[in-house]
UniProtKB/TrEMBL annotation:
GO molecular function: lipid binding
Domain START: residue ranges: 16-166
Organism the protein comes from: Lanius ludovicianus
A Pfam family reported for this protein in Swiss-Prot or TrEMBL: START
Coiled-coil residue spans: none
Classification via InterPro entries: START-like_dom_sf (IPR023393), START_lipid-bd_dom (IPR002913), START_lipid_transfer (IPR051213)
GO cellular component, one term: cytoplasm
Gene3D superfamilies: 3.30.530.20
Protein name as annotated: ACO12 thioesterase
Length: 197
């Protein structure tokens, strides 16, 4: 368990530090970047938010609030509170055209910064839980590495960076974006900002 939570945070830190991100879209307070490496596509969404970083952290680390701003979350229940900083959730996502709804069992690890210049972290990865086997009504999907880094800009503003290493399980929700027929990444980012502020 300790190893899983450590590797969860380490994987997000590693993803955030990668070089070679390409900016694909810029709005007033949202920037969207992509990073391709072999068959792996990673996504970074940078949001400027007018709330203190610790407020954004407490709201984003509580995944039971996620449905309020992210329409890709149909339901989200806590399966296990592993520790103060670690929770395991079961999440269901709406069906995409021609597919069953998807579900995910995820470990969410949160960390406060040890030093002032470090970001708050909320890291997400899929885990296997014997108590929640795959069910025939859902397509069980996997999140390799995702999460938020929250950097303080001032006492009343912060930069929230959302990362996702895209797997085939998440791709249907993002694919429409890259073809330009949908604005769901931007819309979700703007909903997130609205929710935090």
């Amino acid at each position: 368990q300790a190893y899983l939570s450590y590797s969860n945070i380490a994987a997000l830190t590693h993803l955030a530090r990668k070089s070679g991100w390409d900016i694909t879209r810029t709005l007033d307070n949202v920037k969207i970047w992509t990073h391709e490496e072999g068959a792996v596509l990673s996504l970074k969404v940078e949001m400027q938010v007018k709330v203190p970083s610790h407020v954004a952290f407490s709201l984003l680390s509580d995944f039971s609030l996620r449905q309020r701003w992210d329409r890709h979350f149909l339901t989200c229940e806590v399966l296990q509170a592993v520790s103060e900083e670690e929770k395991i959730y079961h999440v269901t996502a709406p069906p995409t055209t021609g597919h069953k709804p998807r579900d995910f069992v995820i470990l969410v690890s949160q960390r406060q910064p040890c030093r002032p210049q470090e970001p708050y972290m909320v890291a997400v990865r899929s885990v296997t839980l014997r108590a929640v086997p795959p069910s025939p009504e859902f397509c069980r999907s996997e999140i390799l590495c995702a999460g938020f880094q929250i950097h303080s800009n001032s006492s009343s503003s912060c930069t929230v960076c959302y990362f996702n290493q895209v797997t085939s399980g998440v791709m249907p929700y993002l694919a429409a974006n890259f073809t330009g027929s949908s604005k769901s990444i931007e819309d979700t980012a703007l909903e997130c900002i609205k929710f935090l502020e």
